[in-house]
Amino acid sequence: xxxxxxxxxxxxxxxxxxxxxxxxxxxxxxxxxxxxxxxxxxxxxxxxxxxxxxxxxxxxxxxxxxxxxxxxxxxxxxxxxxxxxxxxxxxxxxxxxxxxxxxxxxxxxxxxxxxxxxxxxxxxxxxxxxxxxxxxxxxxxxxxxxxxxxxxxxxxxxxxxxxxxxxxxxxxxxxxxxxxxxxxxxxxxxxxxxxxxxxxxxxxxxxxxxxxxxxxxxxxxxxxxxxxxxxxxxxxxxxxxxxxxxxxxxxxxxxxxxxxxxxxxxxxxxxxxxxxxxxxxxxxxxxxxxxxxxxxxxxxxxxxxxxxxxxxxxxxxxxxxxxxxxxxxxxxxxxxxxxxxxxxxxxxxxxxxxxxxxxxxxxxxxxxxxxxxxxxxxxxxxxxxxxxxxxxxxxxxxxxxxxxxxxxxxxxxxxxxxxxxxxxxxxxxxxxxxxxxxxxxxxxxxxxxxxxxxxxxxxxxxxxxxxxxxxxxxxxxxxxxxxxxxxxxxxxxxxxxxxxxxxxxxxxxxxxxxxxxxxxxxxxxxxxxxxxxxxxxxxxxxxxxxxxxxxxxxxxxxxxxxxxxxxxxxxxxxxxxxxxxxxxxxxxxxxxxxxxxxxxxxxxxxxxxxxxxxxxxxxxxxxxxxxxxxxxxxxxxxxxxxxxxxxxxxxxxxxxxxxxxxxxxxxxxxxxxxxxxxxxxxxxxxxxxxxxxxxxxxxxxxxxxxxxxxxxxxxxxxxxxxxxxxxxxxxxxxxxxxxxxxxxxxxxxxxxxxxxxxxxxxxxxxxxxxxxxxxxxxxxxxxxxxxxxxxxxxxxxxxxxxxxxxxxxxxxxxxxxxxxxxxxxxxxxxxxxxxxxxxxxxxxxxxxxxxxxxxxxxxxxxxxxxxxxxxxxxxxxxxxxxxxxxxxxxxxxxxxxxxxxxxxxxxxxxxxxxxxxxxxxxxxxxxxxxxxxxxxxxxxxxxxxxxxxxxxxxxxxxxxxxxxxxxxxxxxxxxxxxxxxxxxxxxxxxxxxxxxxxxxxxxxxxxxxxxxxxxxxxxxxxxxxxxxxxxxxxxxxxxxxxxxxxxxxxxxxxxxxxxxxxxxxxxxxxxxxxxxxxxxxxxxxxxxxxxxxxxxxxxxxxxxxxxxxxxxxxxxxxxxxxxxxxxxxxxxxxxxxxxxxxxxxxxxxxxxxxxxxxxxxxxxxxxxxxxxxxxxxxxxxxxxxxxxxxxxxxxxxxxxxxxxxxxxxxxxxxxxxxxxxxxxxxxxxxxxxxxxxxxxxxxxxxxxxxxxxxxxxxxxxxxxxxxxxxxxxxxxxxxxxxxxxxxxxxxxxxxxxxxxxxxxxxxxxxxxxxxxxxxxxxxxxxxxxxxxxxxxxxxxxxxxxxxxxxxxxxxxxxxxxxxxxxxxxxxxxxxxxxxxxxxxxxx
Length: 1387
Prior knowledge:
four-stranded antiparallel sheet
């Protein structure tokens, strides 16, 4: 009935209470209520209050609204009659009294109750002080400010609270005690005892529900005294013990005490004319008292009506007898649980051996005439006996399946019942010593699977030790006994759950029956229910109605069959109507009659049935009328349902479940439509009437089969009446199958912890403890029947009867087959199941119908929704066959298909388009493409762009690029073509279809493809996939456009070089960059040198990797390439690209050699690269990169010279590791010391890299570096020799600069002498040509400077060398003059 809500703990001010333990000495199951009351205020959502958890928890839930349920837990047990009292300030007060003597007031605003905004005064506790807590028996709230507490000594504790200044708040309760014997207060223990101990104990309370304030309350005590209380007892009368005594008006005699248990025995009726006197509203008040049967008289008791007189001058009144009403004989032995008066009807709820029975009678005030009692009978349920299951196992031998379907049938067992029985079963297994089955610790997704996995898990298949045969019979018998034991546990728990508690008044003035775990509503019987109950009671034989008489005969014929034969026949008939029949119904019926019916009917029964049929006159007319009885659905009743005086007997439809499942989707929806209980009641009523109609139809069909063979002339063949009976049974078998299936409600939202927190937040600042243990969000969702899920939202002005019949009318199934469109109603039903998400049952029912287009379409939708599109495709194709050659739907298939096919125009291309959209919603592109292509091909006119777009999108998504290419070039929409070129090219690149892309012609779209690829190459991630630069390079290369290919790769190289990357990634980036540069160089090398250049926007040169100087734009640019208004550009020639390529290679080499350096994030130019190699002593790499990058080597040779000097000075003290640059095989082959090899390395390096083009700059650098280090050092002979041969003057200048006069003089002398030798002798012996001898030049000024410096020197050798230089110069001058003379003398 109510959800397992998370409980809000309400604390207490008392500190001496024992720790609460609800499970200790629990008499009821936790979810079974010991008390319940139904609160139904006018024009507000009704509430249900239940006392559960062994009286420790009060549950509140809304029946007609959308409010989430809530529970309040208390420290001590609650006195079992808490009450809800309305207040004039739009509030509801819940008054609770605990056994510990605490009175709680819980205040909730209407209509949102506990979900509304809360203040700090919603909860208040008062501890009773004037009487011991043990003396409290029951409470009764007259109004929010007046509470009466019945004491065990017969007194009344009056608690009164004054309202604070006309506000909703109340002061604390004030206490006073009243006794009936005196007008003043007495102690709790009366000094005036009675003849019987406890005879004055109060067993019932009542007060008027009036709009006018009143403090009058009525009580009934065990001694049968009815008393009227205000601030004291103002009237009393002793109720007679017997009905006869009440009628005679004789004085009641003492004795015959009522049971001590507090019960609902009195009710205060409203004023007869509905108008109350404001001065004395209690005058003329009627009070109805029930007096249970205290003797052996028939009936459960009787009712006595009293009238309260006007107030006398002394404040007292008198109770006047008006009338009495005896109970029906059916109530004999039953106990009245509650009664209420609705209009002029008295409704009684009886406890008949643990089962609820409802009776009602028309209440005539002040009339002594005997009235007719009517009973409301609950829908019959199967009795789960072993014999019942034996009959079910005849048609289905699967034990587990049969039992599981039976216990999960809606309305039989509640979820809590199944869980409790399962827990008991598990505990019983766990208590057995030894190893337990693994099924006990396994996890299961659903309760049904849990039950199927646990029950029978201890039953094993035994093997005969002698023969080795598997004893299957013993196994099935043991398994069946295990299931029967589990069903017995379920029945025991459910029997406790169905104990009646109270009867209330619903929103539409209908009786509401409250049981421990169920909530039922009383509704009128329809024709089928009436007929079924008549036959069930065996009262149909005397009817004059031919239809009812025929149904009575049919019921008798069916019951004459053996139980197993009856099950076999029913199973076979069900199978027949669920298959496609190729023969006429008459032939099929005759065959079934001969094989399965007539052979089982005894001759006496045949004669009896035949005789009764002959007495009907026209059997055919009776069958037609019986069909109308079975299929009758009354016309819609507009407005509120009005119950007539002579309404037929009514039945109780029991809505069942464990919790609330309200829909919160649309906040504007009225609460009634969000409430699930009205829908559950309607579903229960629909299930009951379907069960009745099904059994009537089955009986009628069996009788008709009997007639078709025994009395064939009695049935019409045109049209065949047997076909209508078969179709009625087919429809009802479908509905019967639905009624027996359970399902979680589709729009039920779990009451999760978030919802609970939201409610608790509204109780902020109040003394309420936190939540208890976290429950699963799905723990409280009810299991409904499938009928519940497909019912429409209830209307607030329709009772259960009209709600149910509105549904039966709307689906159109309960119409004779000849009067409704073929399969239209069945198709709508299957579609509704599919929409609600019940795909399996929808497919199951669709499989029972002929595969017409409407059925095929809905069945295809179920397969598609279930994720099996392959099964759906051929069904969709089959539906397409129903369209004619002109593409229009055939007339015979229109009705069933148009109800479920949402098309504006039933035209084949539109149908294909619709199916394609269905597959598109499921992202099934292969079928989207298939049906879109069919839509295009089947359309005789030009189709819209949307279809082409859908087709191309599907082809591309599926990777069918050739199909997409063909569709692209064949479509008539040019804008769409241009838009999809980009999508196709991008998709092919993403999937690596580069080869196919470059080979396709793309006739008319080549420039579009190039634009797409170029745009992607410029803007896409240069290191991402796909690499559009490579794709563009392949595109151009395949077409021989090498200049464009080179430009694409150069742009890619530039983009890669600008990326800031991690040091660990630099080598990969640099390698890819070098590859792009090399590809660009190769491509540009294949074109005309005049065109081997690349133009870039000037902004591209601002990149961090462009370290070379910017090239100036060419002065002559072809106009066909660049217009007159072109932006500033940079022209990069092939040589420039090679230079950048070498720079990248150098950086890459540096990164490979020295990975510890962060080369990636440094801006390193050519000079920096060479310098980095020099710093690391990698002179081979330094020299190589300096040559390739054109970097001056001055600093390099300075560093190399310094290393050589250092190695020479160190001598043999250094190891080979001190100079790794000398560790190569070539250098080590030279031999010698490190210093010698170093000077040799320097000599070879100078020979390779220095010459006349550099003016021997690097030799000069080496010379200078040596002398800068140590001017007294001895120069290498090869270096001196080099200068003597190539630049002696520089050597002399350096000596002179560093004040080495001796070396300068010697070199000067040698230079003069060498010059003199070259010019001496004949032309054959001279070293220089005779013609150029006069051109010999010597640095005379340098010589003069040296000689002048030597004159100031004090060194002896300097003076001598200076003298020698002078002599040598004089000789040279003399020789030069002679040579000049000879030259002039030549002819």
